[in-house]
Amino acid sequence: MRNDSVTRLLALILVALAATATAQAAPVQVPDPAEWARLTPAEQDAQRAQLRQRLQAATPEERAAFQSRLRERLESLSPEERRALAGRARERWQELTPEQRENLARERRERLQAMSPEERQQLLQQRRQMLEKLTPEERAALREKLRER
After folding, report:
1. How many structural domains does the chain have?
2. What pTM was computed for the model?
3. I need a labelling partner for 133 at 20 to 30 A (CA). Which of 16, 69, 110, 124 fits?
4. Same domain, 90 and 66
5. Per residue in 42-97, pLDDT tens?
């Protein structure tokens, strides 16, 4: 009798461990840009919070894989799709209140400050690689926008 209850307890523990391992083994999925654009700002905020939470729980390798897939997904967009995506992001930014803008900027600063020097260097390298893949027109437009500050 006692052996049966121990066996059941072990089986439950194994099932729980298997479920945990399966949940952790699943990579964090990169959202489709077109589907993301169709979400309302509130839905995007909720999805973004979920992504951040999953990425915080992920291993460094899983986070790197997510960033790589995200970069590939964005690079695969046509210039028109990238412009449309950037335009929607710009519109959303302009709709924010000054307090919301400051909160987002503060959160971004905090995330960058929390990075190790190696992570920051890697981020800079990734940004340079993305800039190299932009069309000359996109790079010129980006330079113009940066001067507006």
Report:
1. 3
2. 0.58
3. 110
4. no
5. 888 888 889 888 888 888 888 888 888 888 888 888 888 888 888 888 888 888 89
